[in-house]
Amino acid sequence: MGTVEEAHNVRVLGSGEQTIVLGHGFGTDQSVWKHLLPHLVDNYRVIVYDNMGAGPTNPDYFDFERYATLEGYAHDLLAILEEFRVERCIYVGHSLSSMTGAIASIFRPDLFHKLILISASPRFINTDDYYGGFEQEDIDQLCNAMEANYKSWISGFAPLVVGGDMDSVAVQEFSRTLFNMRPDIALSVFRTIFTFDLRHFLSRVTVPCHIIQSSKDLAVPVAVAEYLHQNLGGKSIVEVMSTEGHLPQLSSPEITIPVLLRHITRDIVDE
């Protein structure tokens, strides 16, 4: 077993000429793709993996300095593609992993046929000329709450992000995967995500990008999807779904999965 395969719990499912790689966001793991996978394995070779720091990964492998920027995650992704001899793939990235895929595509555009970006944001904090959805004080409060009582923080954070109450299956699932993260690692990853500013990278992303967004997402306003569309360096398209929450593939699979399958099978020139 290769070290990359072991560290990231990489699984290769299905078979097909085209390879699809699925990258999950903060607080989840590869199980977040459970509703999508059955629709892919008959026609594609599908690679799923866990980001370093996710609950199922070995916390001893988490390097706080390496993962203080998204380049660390991007290099992990490229290492996975290399180990599994992926020459070209369709990359589906959610939240944190959407921007990870964008950065990886700058380093190696030849490896990516297209990027499908779900709930993507290059910056979460507002500036004078940009609306990301949060003020710095909001992030500071969330970080303080995480440090004070991680379990209690999850019970408040998960319903807000998913869009539902604690009785919701999707909220319970997100709470479970959040709880599986070691609290200090979760706080570090959270800080990295909510303080990065990747806007200067966007013009260097030349791989076609399909931007998929919920119409109501506490973490990512619809305006951010349009900002990505206007500032990416290659072809892009935006589809805003009538879904609520930051994890539509988990909370509204009946709407989200058909949209994802359409963007996987069709390129932008065909739209």
From TrEMBL:
Keywords assigned: Hydrolase
An MF annotation (GO) of this entry: hydrolase activity
Domain AB hydrolase-1: 19-252
SUPFAM superfamilies: alpha/beta-Hydrolases
Pfam families in alphabetical order: Abhydrolase_1 (PF00561)
Family indicated by similarity: Belongs to the AB hydrolase superfamily.
Name by which UniProt lists this protein: AB hydrolase-1 domain-containing protein
